Amino acid sequence: MPSAQPTLFSIETTLNYAGPTEGPPFFGLEAYESNIAFEPHQVSIYDARPIQDQFSLDREGFTLVKHASVAAADPRIRTANVTHEMDRNEVNDAYHHEVGEFLRGLTGARKRTWAPPAGFVHLD
């Protein structure tokens, strides 16, 4: 008999998906430097932590892991806005280094790159 799956907590939100374009899609640093028309879609986002052991980086293309971040515990992180800006400062540098080393250990990668969070749903 299969075991019962836990009920997962979810929230409803809006995500922006890229809509049709004229020609190959492109975008620059500013929103007006793009031929992509974004289309908002209401979606449910589920907290998958109760079933995190069911995901594999090799099978699903992502995994969920626990990590106690030393840099994220720094009270200055709230004003450094680490996850939304690429400004160089002590807190951002410490956070990026820590996450990079964590990901290297998790994946075996030899090199890492860092990019700001995407502002829309994409396929790359």
Would you kindly provide a brief summary of this structure?
With 124 residues, this protein is an alpha+beta fold. The protein is built from three helices and two strands.
Give the key terms.
single chain; 124 residues; alpha+beta; 2 domains; extended
End-to-end distance, in Å?
39 Å
Give start-end ranges of low-pLDDT stretches.
Answer: none
Largest sheet: 2 strands, antiparallel
- Overall shape: extended
User: Spatial order of the strands in the main sheet?
Assistant: 1-2
Overall pLDDT, averaged?
Answer: 81
Query: What is the C-alpha radius of gyration, as a whole number of Å?
Result: 18 Å
Total number of domains: 2
Spell the H/E element sequence. Answer: EEHHH
Classify the helix fraction into a percent range. 10-25%
The chain-level structural class is alpha+beta
Strand content: 5-15%
Q: How many helices does DSSP assign? A: 3
Give the total of beta strands: 2
